[in-house]
Write a structure and sequence with these properties.
Helix 2 links the parallel strand 3 and strand 4. The longest helix is centred in the middle third of the chain and has 19 residues. The strands form 2 sheets. Strands 3, 4, 5, 8, 9, 10 and 11 form a 7-stranded mixed β-sheet that branches. Strands 1-2-7-6 form a 4-stranded mixed β-sheet, covered by helices on one side. It is an alpha/beta fold. It has a single domain, classed as Glycoside hydrolase/deacetylase (TIM Barrel, Alpha-Beta Barrel). The chain is about 35% helix and about 20% strand. GO terms for molecular function: hydrolase activity, acting on carbon-nitrogen (but not peptide) bonds. This is Peptidoglycan-N-acetylmuramic acid deacetylase PdaA. Keywords: Hydrolase, Signal. Pfam families: Polysacc_deac_1. Its EC number is 3.5.1.-.
Length: about 230
């Protein structure tokens, strides 16, 4: 995305209401970082580049207009898919990858909370989708986002054993066309933004583009900044 990009914003404005009407809502999560035994957790990326990262979760709602919206916005996104939704329509997500520059990552088997489960069960829930995605998408995922952003030491150990390089949280969230921030009042370089495949997809992408433009940031692919 080049800044400013009024044309892209105008296109998204025209498209987002084909997906759903606008409404409001927010939730805020604490930002920070966490490392230790197991895969490291990242809430935001430390970088001097004027970049921000869009991540999209679950995959429950799939609408052909979503591809049009992402392509028009020129926003590369990391898609954290649950295995059950990915298996429902892998071709839909392959098109987002191939035509909109998205990267496919894992959100686990389903959206069950991992905390309180043993190591073997958490490994099963993280490792099995990795094998499924290699078959469906030709590549194992590098990143994992735990359902609800909920994790413990056992989750990080399980993720490491499954070959996950980073467990990804977030520092800002878009919900129903509005963005909320953790410990800030605007986007900052390195912020990781959470949104979902939902009925307000178009409005949420439009909000991301407008907030990024307002902060003088360009969307970048998260995977390119994690090593």
């Amino acid at each position: 995305m080049r800044i400013p990009r009024p044309g892209a914003v105008m296109v998204i404005t025209a498209l987002f209401c084909t997906l759903a009407a606008c409404s409001t809502g927010m939730s805020v999560h604490t930002s920070g970082s966490d490392t230790g035994d197991g895969s490291p957790v990242v809430f935001r990326v430390s970088t001097g580049d004027p970049v921000v990262f869009l991540t999209i979760d679950d995959g429950a709602v799939r609408d052909p207009d979503m591809l049009t919206v992402l392509k028009a916005a020129e926003v590369p996104a990391s898609l954290f898919l649950t295995a059950d939704y990915a298996a429902d329509d892998p071709e839909f997500f392959r098109r987002l990858r191939d035509e909109a520059g998205a990267r496919i990552e894992t959100h686990g088997i389903d959206h069950s909370d991992l905390r309180g489960r043993g190591l073997a069960e958490q490994k099963r829930r993280i490792c099995r989708p990795a094998e499924d995605y290699k078959r469906m998408f030709g590549k194992r995922p590098e990143l994992f986002r735990p359902p609800y952003g909920s994790y413990g030491e056992t989750t990080l150990k399980a993720a490491e054993k499954c070959g996950v390089s980073h467990v990804v949280h977030w520092s800002a969230e878009i919900k129903e066309g509005e963005m909320s921030f953790a410990n800030a009042d605007r986007l900052r370089p390195g912020d990781i933004v959470l949104m979902h495949f939902g009925e307000n997809f178009g409005a949420d992408v439009r909000e991301f583009v407008e907030q990024a433009d307002r902060a003088g940031l360009r969307p970048a692919l998260l995977e390119n900044y994690l090593s």
